[in-house]
Design brief:
Largest sheet: 11 strands, mixed
Structural class: alpha+beta
Helix content: 25-40%
Oligomer: single chain
Length: 389
């Protein structure tokens, strides 16, 4: 028999959904059987839909060995010995001892008791994948909070601080983290309900003279990790966003991208590009890169989408020439894409994070981006766009 106590971060979850996370090695059938026969909450049988409350005690009427197997803890220290080991690891981290923590690479743009806004550097994954399971932004933030004493993995059963948005490995800039379960739910809701506007900076090939609102339907080829946007339409009027989060009948996803040209850049010898601000209304994989490429203005340095819809051999040559120039002069081997600003709505935010209403946060441009702008004689770097409020 073993007992666990529900913390504030685990409260508000259905019993079956809590157990699906806590008992990560158990099948759904095994979980429902445990609820019927081998689990009590504060000494009472509860339905699978029962909502857990802070301070309640779940009792498992099975052996410790069986429970460890279902949680994936078999062969690891548990109970008092595991808790003591966690304290030792935490103390070692605080004093520079050897631990398995990921080296911190991110910048803290903003932090309070509920929310952390991280500045992600180039080359770092937001989440781990099958090739990189340890050193990614989510783990770095968790290790940072462990060192501060604000997150104790041994105490939490299923919750861990996590990002509410994601950036590709080679995209830099702002990532929102919920430090508590309530804050993470609120951030996810704000992004889903368009209460947090996300703005990017990038450099697009060619000259874009006026603001554009680009619509389309995106499909992704998982095998090639490449997306395609069909039926691209442009207008100067915003599209209605009610249907943007629904999958189309052909399984494609609607996308909406707002482009605002900021400055024409001249790299000499006829090579021109446009510094643009992009408002990402829908946040699909590779959306900005594919949408700009689809109208003949691919992101500089982005070889994956460079030739998607170039209209002529001349256009192809100009794209290749500029990419080769940037690779030679600035060692640019991939796209320049920076999630530089996030602005929260003036009203409608969840009560837990209402204090963020009307606030904006920005992440400074990375050095590689600045060097390319300087090479084109840009005046943008002198503009006061990086003022958090």
């Amino acid at each position: 028999m073993r007992e666990i106590t529900i913390t504030a971060n685990d409260a508000g979850r259905r019993l079956d959904r809590f157990l699906r996370k806590y008992l990560s090695n158990a099948s759904l059938g095994e979980i429902y059987k445990l609820i019927r026969k081998d689990i009590k909450v504060d000494g009472k049988r509860r339905a699978q839909s029962y909502m857990l409350n802070e301070g309640e005690v779940i009792t498992f009427y099975i052996s410790d060995e069986a429970l460890d197997a279902l949680t994936g803890m078999a062969g690891k220290m548990s109970g008092a010995f595991g808790a003591q080991a966690g304290k030792m690891d935490k103390a070692a981290a605080a004093h520079g001892g050897k631990t398995s923590k990921a080296k911190r690479q991110f910048r803290i743009i903003y932090e309070d008791a509920d929310v952390l806004i991280a500045g992600k550097p180039f080359g770092l994954l937001t989440h781990g994948d099958r090739f990189e399971k340890k050193n990614h932004l989510a783990n770095q933030v968790k290790d940072y909070l462990i060192e501060k004493g604000e997150y104790e993995p041994a105490r939490e059963k299923v919750f861990s601080p996590a990002p509410a948005n994601r950036l590709d490995r080679n995209t830099t800039g702002l990532v929102l983290f919920g430090k508590t379960s309530a804050a993470l739910k609120a951030l996810n809701m704000m992004i889903r309900d368009d209460l947090a506007d996300k703005y990017y900076l990038t450099i697009a090939h060619g000259i874009i003279e006026k603001p554009l609102v680009l619509r389309g339907n995106l499909t992704k080829d998982e095998e090639s990790n490449k997306v395609q946007i069909s039926e691209i339409k442009a207008s100067e009027l915003p599209a209605h966003t009610d249907e943007l989060h629904r999958r189309n009948d052909d399984h494609s996803l609607p996308v909406l991208t707002v482009i605002e040209p900021l400055e024409i850049l001249d790299f000499g010898d006829g090579m021109k590009a446009t510094l643009v601000q992009v408002k990402l209304v829908t946040g699909r994989s590779h959306q900005i890169r594919a949408h700009l490429a689809g109208i003949g203005h691919p992101v500089v340095g982005d070889t994956k989408y460079a030739h998607v819809s170039a209209t002529s051999r001349t256009a192809l040559r100009m794209i290749d020439r500029l990419n080769e120039h940037l690779a030679r002069e600035y060692k640019l081997q991939t796209q320049l894409l920076h999630a530089y600003r996030i602005s929260f709505a003036d009203e409608g935010l969840p009560e837990d994070l209402a204090y963020l209403s009307g606030k904006s946060f920005t992440a400074p441009l990375p050095p590689a981006f600045c060097k390319v702008l300087e090479g084109a004689g840009s005046e943008f770097k002198s503009k006061p766009i990086y003022q958090n409020n």
